[in-house]
Amino acid sequence: MSKIAIVFWSGTGNTETMANAVEAGAKEAGAEVTRFSPADFTEDKVADFDAIAFGCPAMGAEVLEESEVDPMFTALEQASVLTGKKVGLFGSYGWGDGEWMRNWEERCRQAGADLIYEGVICNEAPDAAATEACKKLGTDLSH
Question: Could you say which DSSP state residue 122 is in?
């Protein structure tokens, strides 16, 4: 059984809805899932999981949330614990064109993560297509 961590921050509930779909997909695929807030996910926890789904909405000028998500992710990068780790990204946005996700994907690649595919993004609340994409992300992280 795969062990999946879902680490996310949600301001309006849209990214939490996406996290719920990732969790549903992972559990349907038989994975054991543990959810974390970014404040509770530290570099020493990475090795406990086969894969990690990170979720964060676009903030400000299309950046990661700056008080919890970015500091947590920066600590993981600096500790070099993402090398070879299967990772998936997801999040919602209300403006822009997804630049925050492209930047986050690049950070994952530079950290050596095994980014399974482009991040799942949606404008505002996830529609049926985004929900299915999140479920697929959970399923794919489980294999």
Answer: E
The SS3 call for residue 15 is: helix
d(CA 97, CA 83) in angstroms, rounded, equals: 28
Per-residue burial over 74-100, b if 16 or more Cβ lie within 10 Å, else e, is: eebbeeebbeebbbbbbbbbeeeebeb
**Cβ atoms 113, 77 nearer than 8 A:** no
Q: Report d(CA 54, CA 68) in Å as an integer.
A: 12
In sequence order, what are the beta bridge partners of 110? none
Alpha helices (H) in 80-127, listed in sequence order: 99-110
79-118 pLDDT, tens digit per residue, is: 999 999 999 999 999 999 999 999 999 999 999 999 999 9
Q: How far apart are CA 69 and CA 133, in angstroms?
A: 22
The CA–CA distances, whole Å, from 82 to 77, 98, 115, 129, 138 equal: 7, 23, 10, 29, 18
With beta carbons less than 8 A apart as the criterion, state whether 122 and 22 touch: no
Domains and CATH numbers, the chain: 3-141 (3.40.50.360)
